[in-house]
Amino acid sequence: MDILPQLFLDGLVVGFVYALIAVGYTMVYGVLELINFAHGDIFMVGAFVGTEVLVALAGWGLRATADPWLALSLALLPAMAVAAALGVAVERFAYRPLRRSPRLIILISAIGVSFIIEDLVRLVETIHQGKFVLPVPTVFPDVYHVSVPGLPSPLTIKANSLVVVGAAVIMMVVLTLIVSRTRAGRAMRAVAEDPVTAALQGVDVDRIIALTFLIGSAMGGAAGVLFATQYTTITPYIGFLIGIKAFTAAVVGGIGNIPGSFLGGILLGVLEQVGGGFVGAKFQNVFAFCVLVAVLIFKPSGLLGQRVQEKV
Amino acid sequence: MSAAGGTAPRPAQEGAAGRAAGPVLEARGVSKRFGGLVAVERVDLAIAPGTVHSLIGPNGAGKTTLFNMITGIYRPDEGDILFRGRSVAGLPPEKVAERGISRTFQNVRLFKELTALENVLVGMHLHLRANFFDVVLHTPRVEAEERRARREARELLAAVGLGGLGDELAKNLPYGHQRRLEIARALAVRPALLLLDEPAAGMNPRETEAVMELIDGLRRERGLTILLIEHDMKVVMGISDVVTVLDHGAKIAEGPPDAIRRDPRVIEAYLGKAVER
What we know:
Strand content of chain A: under 5%
Oligomer: heterodimer
Shape of chain B: globular
Structural class of chain B: alpha/beta
Distance between the termini of chain B: 42 Å
Largest interface: A-B, 21 and 34 residues
Helix content of chain A: over 70%
Order of helices and strands of chain A: HHHHEEEHHHHEHHH
Number of strands of chain B: 10
CATH architecture of chain A: Orthogonal Bundle
CATH topology of the largest domain in chain B: Rossmann fold
CATH topology of chain A: ABC transporter involved in vitamin B12 uptake, BtuC
Number of strands of chain A: 4
Number of domains of chain B: 2
Order of helices and strands of chain B: EEEHEEHEHHHHEHEHEEHH
Radius of gyration of chain A: 20 Å
CATH class of chain A: Mainly Alpha
Helix content of chain B: 25-40%
C-alpha cells in the first residue's frame, strides 16, 4: 500500500494528458459521429513539432532550462498551430468528400490517414535528424520530494508534472468556456444535435465542423508537447497506443460529452497506473482496456453519457 | 407584366426596404421525385407580401416536400423557386436562411440539450458578427454583441409567450411551449418569409386559439409573410388570405378560404373526408 499515493499521482499526470487528447475524439464524434483514428497521430505531430522547437532553441544557444516558461510557450504555440492546421486539412481532404458515404468507409479513410501521418513523420525525421526516435530536451528539471505525515517514504513530484497538470486544467477551462458561452460553441452544440436544423438557422455546418477539428487538434497538439516533456522520448508511433487509450477514456466518460472525456481521461490514467503498480507495469494496458470492455458491457453510454437515440 | 402598371419589375433588392412589388416567393413548375414516386409535380405558387398563405392537402400530398425544397433541404428536379425575385432553388439551407426564409417543423426539432434562450441565439447566428478570434481574445465587441443578442432573444421569447423560461432546457418544456420556442427560433433568423409546418398539431382547442392569435400578430406587427401547412381547418379558414390545395403532388385548387371550402374538387380530394359537418 505504500506506493499507492505515488502511483495515484503518476496516474493523474498521464490522465490529464489522456483527457486533453480524449476531448478531440469526443468533439469530433459529437459533430460527425466519426471516430477520428488520425487524432492520435495529430497528437504525435504536436509532440514532434514541440520537440523540434526545443532542439532548435538549444541549437541557437537557448537551453530550455534557462527560461523554461519561454521555451514551453515557444514549443506549444507552433505545435498547436501545426496540429490544428493538420486536423483541419485531414477533415477537408479525407473526411468531407466521404461524408455521405457509409460510416465504415470514412473510418477506413481515417485509419489510412493515420498510417500516412506516422510514416511521413518517420520519413521527415529520418532525413532531418538521421533517426526517428527523438530524445526530448528537459524543460523543467526540478524534482521535489514531498514528505507527507503518515507516509513512510516522501512523494516524488517532477516540476514538469505540475506544469502538465496546470496547462491541461487551463486548456480544459478555456475549452469549456468556448463551448458553453460563445456563439461558436453554441453552434457546435447545435450541429452536434441536429446538423440539418442548425443549417436552417443559418449555421454554416461545414465551417463549424472545421472549427471543431481545429480546436480538438490544437488541444491534441498541446497534449503532444506536454507528453514529450514529461516522458522524454518520442517516436512517430506513440500516437497509436496513446490515441487508443484516449479514445477509451472518451468512451469511459461518455463519447460526445466533453466533461465526460476529461473525467474518463483522468480516471483511466489513475486506474492503469495503480492497477499496473500492483500487478506489474507490463499490465498497464491490460488494465486500461479491461476498463473499456467493462464500460462497454455495463454502461455503454459511458459514465456521463446519455443514451443517444438512433437518428432516423 | 401589365398588372404591374407603372412600376416595371426590377431586379429585387436586398434589405428590408427593398422588397420587390411582386410575390415574395414564387415557385415555377417545381417537381420532386423520389425514385418512382412523384412527390411534387409541376407546382406553381405565388405568395404575396404580408399574407398568410396556407397549404393544405391529404397526407402525402407533397406539402412538406415543397417546404423542404423552399428551404434548401431538397433540390427541385424541375422548375425554379424565386425569393424576392432571385432563385433559391438548390441553395444550401444556411444560404436560404441568409436570404430571409426560416421555418418550423411538423415534428418539433429543437436543440433539446440547449436552453430555450440558446435555441433562439442559434437562430440569431447569422446576425452575430464576432469571429473565432474575437471570441478567443474576448474583445469588447463580443461582450457587447452577446449582451445585445441575449436581450433580443429574451424579447423574442416574451413575444411568443415564453418570457422568463429562457434558462429551461428545451427538452424540459411542455409540448405547446416547445412549438412556440420553435417559432421564436425561426423569428430570430429575421426572416421575411416564415414557413410554419403544422403549428397547431397536437394542440388542444385553447392552445390552437392562442397559436392562431400568435400567427396573426406576427403578420400584423412584424409585417411577415407566412406560408402555413395545417390540417386543422378551423385554423386554415380562420387566418388564411389564400389557400392552395395539393393532392398527389399537384396543385388542384387555389383561392380565398371561402371559395376553397366550396370547391367540389377540394371536397372530393380532401375536405369531404376530413370535415364532417
